[in-house]
Design brief:
Order of helices and strands of chain A: HEEEHEEHHHEHEHEEHH
Helix content of chain A: 25-40%
Number of helices of chain B: 12
Helix content of chain B: over 70%
Radius of gyration of chain A: 18 Å
Number of strands of chain B: 0
Structural class of chain A: alpha/beta
Oligomer: heterodimer
Distance between the termini of chain B: 46 Å
Strand content of chain A: 15-25%
Largest sheet of chain B: none
Shape of chain A: globular
Structural class of chain B: mainly alpha
Number of helices of chain A: 9
Radius of gyration of chain B: 20 Å
Shape of chain B: globular
Number of strands of chain A: 9
Amino acid sequence: MTVVTENALFPPALEAKGVSLAIAGRPVLHDVSFRIERGDFLCICGSNGAGKTMFTKVLLGLIEPTLGSVSLGGLTPKAGRRKTGYVPQRKNFDRLFPAKVVEVIAAHLEGAWPLFVRETTRDKAAAALRLVGAEQHIDKELRELSGGELQRAFLARALAAEPDLLVLDEPMAGVDAKGIHDMTALLDHLVRQRGMTVVMVTHSLTVVERCASKILFMQDGHVRAFGPPAELLQDEHIREGAFTGHDHEHAITSGRGDY
Amino acid sequence: MLSFLAEILAQDFMVRALIGGALVGVACAMMGVLVVQRGITFVGDGLAHTMFGSAALIALFSALLGEFNRAGGDDDFARFIWLALPVNVTVGLAMAWVRRTGKLRGDTVIGIFFPVMFAAGVLALALRRQTEAPPVNMEALLFGSVLGMTKTDLMVTAAGAVAIAILVLTWGRRIAYAAFDADLAAMSGVRVALAEYALFGLSAAVVAVSARLAGIVLVSSLLAIPAGAAAIWRGSYGLQLLFAAVFAAASVKTGLMISYAIDAPCGAMIVLTMGVLFTASWVLKELVSLVKGGNDARS
């Protein structure tokens, strides 16, 4: 008789087991372990150089860990890519590349740069852009967009394939207060209405207070704390280590978005 | 004009040159769009010079093996070019491998392979001269020999050009995505490492296929100029491929006809025609921008 455990039927949305990473012999992640369930909103916090971006690259399968493993809904990071949306921290794309917003989304949907954008693909891109309030930018080149507009375009790209897991690396960097308010409201809506799981690297206490269901606090590549915000935000050491000097918008934005 | 065209089309060697030249021009131009978008335009120049080394090594080994000592001249030159194709593709793949494993910039790798392969070619030709093999037609290797294309050359060139064009239209879309942003492409399922090997390997192949027409000195112009003219207009990837292909085919045909009319070297006329058309395209783009800017300011 085959015994099917509850874990096999409902694997965690994201589980890291003893993830360690060394780059050019220098350790950057040490034994990172935690798990979150479907519908969780995880904020990864910590000062610069804590290993947050490196960890997101491991969980996206862009870098292989030296030790340990990551599972996305029971799949390896590479196998789970098609169900994972990603909004990078730095927009490293070539500014001279003639890329329109609709082409960037089409490329993600088709897994190759489009020769010409098909009507069905354009409709999907328009729907994703409408969701983030950026449909008017569909035919603009990326180089014409402001920082906030670019973030919305990349968020639409990530959402277009209807992912189960959304990974955002400091998506609020360079976004004004209203943009942050709108984006947190949208992400909150996606988690509540669609049951999407969100992992966000952020320095923003505002975002954490509004959205997070779990916080992962990292320091020097180690997990220093993991748990719900109500518990972790009481700790002055975490508040100072994760947010001091970064949370410029906290004083000028207020209220939870009602998307 | 019609009688001039009729005169040209009555010459078998000119018909072969026009067809072969247009096919090679289109293949180079389409590959050039990928190379320019990836920001390694110099790779065309680099791989053209490694092609010299590849062809010279084939010339040396053929002399040592006594394989091609019969006729010499243009026949041997054509054989060296086709036999050098897999050698140059191997060199292209080696460049991609060194770039990835050594984490070097593309121009650094090209700067290493270009002189080393060129020096190997010079040495190979010097060693060949010590054998009893006839001398290699170096002028044809450096500047091309489009008017000397045989039917076999034309068929091999056509097959190579069509294969490269199909690969650019299919696999090239993944290479273009990786050129835009490697991490995002990987997240969308593109095998980025494979895309890079394909870019260098295909570039080496297109240079080898084109060497018979343009020669190694001029082949890089077929990669860079049509793609550069297309990039000025900033259209979609498909439009850029189309623009570059039409630009190259028109330049090759016009250049060949002018060279026939004034009895000038074909390769030089093709490159100069591309230079003139590029300038015209750039001036037109600037004029369009001025008019649009004026209209935007008035509205």
